[in-house]
Design goal:
The chain has 673 residues and is mainly beta. The chain is 4% helix and 41% strand.
């Protein structure tokens, strides 16, 4: 009878009957890597950061001026770096934490954390009031002019952030006169006062709040109320449902039986960047739409006198159709052409090139369904929805071809989407899909049927792409059964699992390492070699044709990794217990406060760093023999277990190359590990 050798180890294939698996395929593969063909136990988690945030959902490793900082959120957030050249402030942009936001290195990393520490709303709100015009003096001839003005932030001259224009004002007067502008808006406010609040208006469960001004406020953004008396339920952070600009009212969702008495303030959660803000004034020559630059004045100035000749006007306005990004923009990504892209409902939205603050309506493209996530694929975008995926071929932001891929594969989990560098992988109803500009393919076809896939609860996936592997955490109704799945995307012939659970996964593009979060702590994955996971690999049931009794076995492993266990602590504990006075706890046996209450001199024995290779023989699914193996020397198996079907399993935190079973020692002698 020939020996059985297990080597070239692969993962498990849930869809296959155990009897039909190859000898090197597992019925269970836990806490290991199989990319080398051997059983490689995962190294432990190495803690690298502790946050003030209770539970980390999204993380981003931000590098500015040579220093790395963790940006952390308890929400699903996407971050995009600044596409502008020579951006000395280290701008970055993100969605998912309320309305779209931007920050800089100095703002984000100020103070002790958590980071980002501070931010601004993404985009520059345009003025709402047309200027008033009066012409003083001058002589004929006359001309008709149109004036507009914009707001411009002043974080740095290297990146200009300019709003769209105010409403236009048209006036006719003497060309040589002084064209006096007035009633121009000052900077949009970031705070104000409350003057009234009415519950269950306009609908039950809503409150209509009257403010001193609603300039710059939009539906879906967040504001915080404080110091309201009577209706104290209002003193919290709330999202705006609607804005009435005519009556300076906002509606928020709030169920309350309280009655407003007096007072109150409001503050934007994402303030406008008004520090150093200026106005730029433009005018036409005649009544056309060719606006030319007139002057730049402080934002607080509401008047200006224009005496500039038409021949001395500056360049034309470049933000005539600039707009703010939608307030519900999410899934932000950056594209190679220098623009940003995001999703709003069933629209793909793109910014202008190198102008992340400007999102013109002409750069929006609709599709069927609701957008879930985006991934860049070269100059194209993979659009994942709750139905069919789409590919958006981007020539320029205002020239995009959006095509539906005719494969129904809804994306069930935004957090389960990973960017492979050439497309996207994500969980769908019946499996794991890879989508790129070349089309869509169910890559888990050889691993799962529909029923087995449902047992992974694909809507709960949280994933990252690391070392060519899709690493996905999935939750179950019984948290004890939560697992991390690892798929080698190059060879989808098996998968491994990790019996651990995490709250977030993130691959850092700077160093290529995978990081995971548990509660408020961040760990580097597969990094602590002193605390390896205990790997477990179980073979298929091998049917040998007739009943036999394998009498010996041999394991080839890296036994040099096994080091003698330090038994000094156990020996010291044993010596303490040998003394009856120590066991009984005699009075005055130790100084006062030498130990904590209920404490003792017994020192806990740590198993960290302990190395083992444990072989188990299995018959009919029941372990019948277990041995800790310490060398390549063959060892005897028990007699009396003649059987036609055999299986074995290995539990190890040492790399294992092969395992062999034989009926005689001679059979083992010719086997190479």
């Amino acid at each position: 009878m020939p020996a059985i050798t297990f080597k070239g180890f692969r993962g498990k294939r849930p869809r296959m009957s155990e009897r039909l698996l190859a000898d090197n395929q597992a019925t269970d593969a836990l806490n290991l890597k199989i990319t080398s063909g051997r059983i490689d136990p995962l190294r432990g988690l190495l803690q690298v950061h502790t946050s003030l945030i209770d539970t980390i959902v999204s993380m981003y490793r931000y590098r500015f001026e040579g220093t790395d900082s963790w940006l952390l959120w308890n929400k699903v957030v996407n971050v995009a770096k600044s596409p502008a050249a020579q951006d000395v402030l280290g701008r970055f942009y993100y969605t998912g934490d309320g309305e779209p936001r931007m920050s800089t290195g100095a703002l984000a990393t100020a103070g002790p954390g958590p980071f980002p520490a501070d931010w601004y709303v993404l985009g520059v709100v345009p003025p709402k009031t047309a200027p008033s015009i009066a012409v003083v003096g001058g002589v004929a001839p006359t001309e008709a002019r149109a004036y507009v003005y914009t707001f411009v932030t002043k974080l740095a001259e290297t990146v200009t952030e300019e709003s769209g224009p105010s409403p236009a004002a048209v006036f006719t007067g003497n060309i040589t006169g002084s064209w006096d502008l007035s009633a121009m808006d000052a900077a949009p406010p970031n705070t104000g006062t409350v003057t009234a609040a009415v519950p269950d208006t306009p609908l039950p469960g809503q409150v209509e709040v009257t403010l001193n001004t609603v300039f710059g406020l939009r539906a879906l953004e967040h504001i915080e109320f404080a110091a309201v008396t009577g209706m104290t339920d209002l003193n919290t952070e709330l999202q705006i449902v609607s804005v009435d600009t005519a009556l300076n009212k906002v509606v928020v969702s709030l169920s309350t039986a309280q009655t407003y008495t007096a007072g109150g303030t409001w503050d934007r959660l994402a303030p406008h960047n008004t520090t150093g803000m200026v106005k730029r004034i433009y005018r036409t020559v005649g009544t056309g739409t060719d606006y030319k630059f007139v002057a730049e004045i402080p934002v607080a100035n509401t008047t200006y006198s224009d005496t500039i000749a038409s021949t001395a006007l500056g360049d034309g306005i470049s933000t005539l159709d600039a707009d703010l990004p939608p307030k519900d923009l999410h899934s932000l990504i950056e594209l190679p052409n220098g623009c940003l892209a995001g999703l709003s409902g069933n629209e793909l939205c793109l910014s202008e090139i190198a102008k992340p603050n400007s999102w013109p309506i002409r750069n929006r493209y609709s599709f069927s369904g609701v957008g879930v996530a985006l991934v860049a694929d070269g100059s194209s975008i993979v659009v994942m929805t709750d139905g069919f995926p789409y590919i958006a071929a981007v020539s320029t932001p205002d020239s995009v071809s959006l095509a539906r891929i005719q494969t129904y594969a809804p994306c069930l989990s935004k957090l389960g989407v990973v960017d492979t560098g050439g497309g996207a992988i994500y969980p769908s109803n019946d499996g794991l899909y890879v989508v790129s500009s070349g089309g869509a393919r169910k890559m888990s076809q050889e691993l799962y049927r529909f029923d087995e896939w449902q047992e992974t609860f694909p809507a709960t996936f949280k994933s990252a792409f690391w070392d060519g592997q899709y690493v996905g955490m999935h939750a179950t109704p019984d948290t004890e059964q939560d697992r991390i799945l690892m798929f080698d995307t190059a060879e989808m012939d098996g998968l491994t699992e990790v019996d651990d659970r995490v709250d977030a996964l993130y691959t850092n593009p700077y160093d290529g390492y995978l990081y995971v979060a548990k509660a408020n702590k961040i760990y580097q994955w597969d990094a602590d070699d002193t605390n390896r996971y205990l790997a477990f690999w179980k073979s298929r049931d091998v049917q040998v044709g007739k009943p036999v009794n394998f009498t010996c076995a041999q394991v080839h492993a890296r036994f040099s990794d096994i080091v003698p266990i330090d038994t000094s602590i156990e020996m010291a504990n044993a010596a303490l217990l040998a003394n009856a006075d120590n066991v009984d706890g005699a009075l005055d046996a130790s100084p006062v406060l030498a130990y904590t209450i209920n404490g003792s001199a017994i020192v806990p024995v740590s198993t960290a760093g302990e190395r083992v290779v444990q072989f188990t023989l299995v018959k009919d699914g029941v372990p019948i023999f277990t041995k800790n193996v310490t060398s390549t020397k063959a060892f005897r198996l028990p007699a009396g277990f003649k059987h036609e079907i055999h299986a074995m399993q290995i539990a190890t935190n040492v790399p294992v190359y092969s395992v062999s079973l034989a009926t005689t020692m001679d059979e083992l002698s010719g086997i190479s590990g």
